[in-house]
Design goal:
This protein is 46% helix and 21% strand. It has helices spanning 9-14, 22-31, 87-92, 113-122, 124-150, 153-163, 173-180, 184-195; strands spanning 33-37, 42-44, 52-58, 61-66, 72-78, 83-84, 99-102, 106-112.
């Protein structure tokens, strides 16, 4: 798909006050690709190596582990403005432990990992942006761990709604239950109790 500068605007906006020189930005645009992914497309499959990251312009992704008995545990979601990848697998070269699936048709920028390394090496702007992105991922991971360890299921549901406003209308309730670490029946009970 031919890239359009407009499709890169969301990523530029995410970069905030960090202004990347035109030459570095041109290298990024030429080395990446805008892709339209169908619903149910696997951006990452557990057990496979990961060579790129995606920036979500439009769409919704679910990150999940599949246990030996086939049960799935939802790790997180990615929406517009988020990066989609198994970062640990991408930097280590080892297979991913989890899968990432598009829950809606998505529009993404596909970014090869080699290009990210090249840009970070040649440009302090990209190096700072990558560092900031990794810091945000780490912060989200710590926040998620704290929620699972310290919050009740009802409090985790409220945290989910604050973190992903409007998302509950876009996904099946059993994905929310899986994310919260409870059964769909327990989730229904919590939702019913909050309405009374």
């Amino acid at each position: 798909m031919e890239e359009s500068r407009e499709e890169y605007d969301a990523l530029k906006k995410l970069m905030g006050p960090l202004v990347v020189p035109d030459q570095d930005w041109d290298i990024f645009v030429k080395g990446t690709m805008v892709r339209r992914l169908k619903r149910d497309y696997f951006a990452v499959r557990a057990g496979e190596t990961v060579h790129c990251a995606y920036f979500c312009i439009k769409g919704l992704f679910r990150f999940f582990y599949t246990l030996d008995d086939g049960k799935e545990f939802t790790k997180s979601f990615a929406i517009e403005g988020d990066f989609v990848t198994s970062y640990g697998a991408m930097i280590s070269g080892e297979p991913s432990y989890f899968s990432i699936q598009a829950l809606e048709e998505a529009l993404v920028i596909e970014i090869p990992y080699g290009l990210l390394l090249e840009l970070a090496d040649r440009s302090r702007y990209w190096e700072r942006f990558l560092r900031h992105s990794v810091e945000q991922l780490y912060r989200k991971k710590e926040e998620r761990e704290r929620e699972l360890l310290y919050l009740s299921a009802a409090e985790r549901l409220e945290a989910f709604k604050m973190k992903y406003p409007g998302l509950e209308a876009r996904i099946p309730q059993y994905f929310i239950a899986s994310y919260l670490g409870i059964s769909p029946v327990s989730l229904s009970r919590i939702v019913h109790q909050s309405k009374t």
